[in-house]
């Protein structure tokens, strides 16, 4: 049994039109959401053997926000291919993960993150497909012995958390 957690980066800023998409930073709401998600991860003692992440600025800042929320994460591997990866490409990246990794977190972009969560889940796919807001996290338990066995519908969606659900106001 393996666990795959998919996190979409937090809300980014569109305030400065001179900044290209790759370099867009988080906006105020994004920072607040990332910190709240970090607090959630810390409170629920979520740990990962490996974190695969896009190199985009908003992903880097999302990880920083998680840490500011109190979550101490494991090793991060930034993969430039995640930024432009479609469903098949991201599936390939995950399948290439070392067999030593039991719990994997992937931090990336929509629509790929949401599509992957929906396609891998036997249940709850409709919950995440098309409704995967910035900063949302899906945890999928997988009935596989190794990452190379990863296929559509061989996972069980066990958690779907949005930043909005974490705010008490």
Describe this structure in words.
- InterPro entries: His_Pase_superF_clade-1, His_PPase_superfam.
- By secondary structure, the chain is an alpha/beta fold.
- The chain has one domain: Phosphoglycerate mutase-like (Rossmann fold), CATH 3.40.50.
- The chain is 34% helix and 20% strand.
- Strand 2 (50-53), helix 2 and strand 3 (76-78) form a beta-alpha-beta unit.
- The N and C termini lie far apart (37 Å).
CATH topology: Rossmann fold
Count of distinct structural domains: 1
Shape verdict: globular
CATH architecture: 3-Layer(aba) Sandwich
Question: Structural class, from secondary structure content?
Answer: alpha/beta
Span between termini: 37 Å
Rounded mean pLDDT score: 93
Work out the strand percent. 15-25%
Helix content: 25-40%
Low-confidence runs of at least 5 consecutive residues: none
> Quick one: CATH superfamily?
Phosphoglycerate mutase-like
Discrete helix count:
7
Order of SSEs: EHEHEHHEHHEEH
Strand order of the largest sheet: 3-2-4-1-5-6
* Number of DSSP strand runs: 6
- Output the CATH class name: Alpha Beta
Radius of gyration: 15 Å
Biggest sheet details: 6 strands, mixed
Pfam family, one: His_Phos_1
Protein name: Histidine phosphatase family protein
InterPro entries: His_Pase_superF_clade-1 (IPR013078), His_PPase_superfam (IPR029033)
Question: Which key features would you list for this structure?
Answer:
single chain, 169 residues, Rossmann fold, six-stranded mixed sheet, 6 strands, 34% helix, 20% strand, globular, Histidine phosphatase family protein, His_PPase_superfam, His_Pase_superF_clade-1
């Amino acid at each position: 049994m393996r666990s795959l957690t998919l996190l979409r980066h937090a809300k980014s800023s569109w305030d400065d039109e001179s900044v290209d998409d790759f370099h867009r930073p988080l906006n105020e709401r994004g920072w607040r959401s990332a910190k709240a998600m970090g607090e959630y991860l810390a409170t629920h003692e979520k740990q990962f053997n490996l974190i695969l992440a896009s190199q985009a600025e908003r992903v880097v800042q999302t990880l920083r926000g998680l840490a500011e929320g109190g979550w101490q994460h494991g090793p991060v591997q930034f993969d430039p291919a995640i930024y432009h990866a479609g469903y098949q490409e991201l599936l390939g990246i995950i399948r290439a993960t070392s067999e030593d990794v039991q719990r994997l977190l992937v931090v990336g972009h929509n629509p790929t993150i949401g599509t992957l969560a929906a396609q891998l889940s036997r249940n709850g796919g409709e919950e995440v497909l098309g409704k995967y807001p910035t900063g949302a996290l899906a945890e999928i338990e997988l009935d596989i012995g190794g990452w190379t066995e990863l296929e559509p519908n061989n996972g069980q969606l066990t958690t779907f958390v949005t930043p909005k659900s974490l705010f008490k106001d």
